[in-house]
Predict the 3D structure of the following.
Amino acid sequence: MEKSLAHRKIEEKFPQAVLDSHAQHGDETLILRKEAILDVARLLKEDSELQFNFLMDITAVDYLGRQPRFEIVYHFMSLPFNRRLRIKLQSDDLYPTVKSLTPLWKTANWLERECFDLYGIRFEGHPNLTRIMLYEGFEGHPLRKDYPKTKRQPLIGPQN
Amino acid sequence: MIPSRSPFDPQNPLEGRVITTPFDKVLGWARKYSLFVYPFVTACCGMEYMSVSSAHYDLDRFGAAFPRFSPRQSDVLWVVGTVSHKLAPLVRRVYDQMTDPKWVIAFGACASCGGPYDNYATMQGIDTVLPVDIYIAGCPPRPEAVLDGVVKLQKMIQESKQVWK
């Protein structure tokens, strides 16, 4: 499939940023260098021909045993042009650190907190990177594949 | 035919007007038909709870439909749906705030035993933190099963020793 406009614009402005790409059912996925995310996201949002003004989701995937281990996944949508774009960042750090998108989208605040809570991804520049779903005192990040399946951390009542 | 009341006899004033019964039984009878419900509704079982408590199945027939949203005014805590570990202290607090006598119904599979959720987030049944009187099975339970549970609770209340002092 030929490169989308967004892909071409990103390559033009940040020649080193795109590591890989693929497309399925007309929606493109780009794998970027981790450091480039904030600049690329700003381009996607503010370019008048792209206008990816809707940040749909931020999540992560733990490919335990693979290198790099973690993938951080962003789903963007352009409401004016009805286009979608998925961006993935990869990291092999135990606690990957990526730049926060909170300066661009307010919704990134909660999405990144969720991602931090369940996967332990650190978002640099986030105003309040605390747990959003689990409680204070919870240890670990339960959606990581090395979190023990039977581990329970009840606040009251019997332990396990 | 309705038996006619015997004429008042000043020599025997209680004749035909009084029945004798243990105090426990009267109190149990009163309590079982005036169950004020505290609905602690967290999940999809709530849909079934709405169905049970509204006109179609008419929980009011059993005197158990009146929801009180203050734990201090309620007798029965209905825990309807999944309770996570994060929520557990709050369920316990609601239970502690209720005045005696009080009963607890675990409504549905999740409240009874965690249901399909055997993971880091979900409490494996509310009976790990508070005493449960009636477990209603189902995911979610049919309204008939809920009515059956209420009737069983009423039977239990009637037959138990009444604490009233």
The mean pLDDT of chain B is 88.
